[in-house]
Amino acid sequence: AVGYFEDKSNISYALSLIPVDPTKRGWRLVVFSKRKTGTYVEVILDQHGNFTGAGFLYKTAPGKYTDMYKFESVQPVTDGVILETDKGAILYYWGKDRYRKFVLRD
After folding, report:
1. What global pTM score does this model have?
2. Which of 45, 44, 35, 32 lies closest to 92, judged by CA?
3. In what order do the strands lie in the sheet with 12-17?
4. DSSP string computed for the chain
5. What is the pLDDT of residue 48?
6. Residue 61, exposed/middle/buried by CB under 10 A (0-12, 13-18, 19+)?
7. Average pLDDT for residues 49-70, to the nearest whole number?
8. Distance in angstroms (rounded) separating the CA atoms of residues 48 and 27
9. Exposed (0-12), middle (13-18) or buried (19+): which is 81, by Cβ within 10 Å?
């Protein structure tokens, strides 16, 4: 996924990484964000040692997001990343100087 995840002037790239070897387990969600200096910084948003299932990763626009029970909501001001798997959906977004995780559906 490609978007303006941290601010509206620098592009970021979100990648879902799994081992090339199908006998190995593990998964990481990593964001590479461009800084004003032109360099990129990586941030691991999530990781699991036993997870190898397929997921669908995509950019989402700023706006209001509510959990499946309609109890909680968040309103990111920059793009976010949603990871959908057979287990549910999670929104990762930038808020108050760091990435945050919000469960949309479990």
Report:
1. 0.90
2. 45
3. 2-3, 12-17, 27-34, 40-48
4. -EE-SS-SSS-EEEEEE--SSTT---EEEEEEEE-TTS-EEEEEEEEESS-----EEEEE-SS-EE-TTSS-EE--SS-EEEEEETTEEEEEEEETTEEEEEEEE-
5. 85
6. exposed
7. 87
8. 5
9. buried
| Amino acid at the residue 99 | Y
Nearest to 46 by CA among 18, 9, 66: 18
The encoded tokens of residue 90 equal 């999670």
Other C-beta atoms within 10 Å of 30: how many?
15
- Provide mean pLDDT across the span 20-40: 89
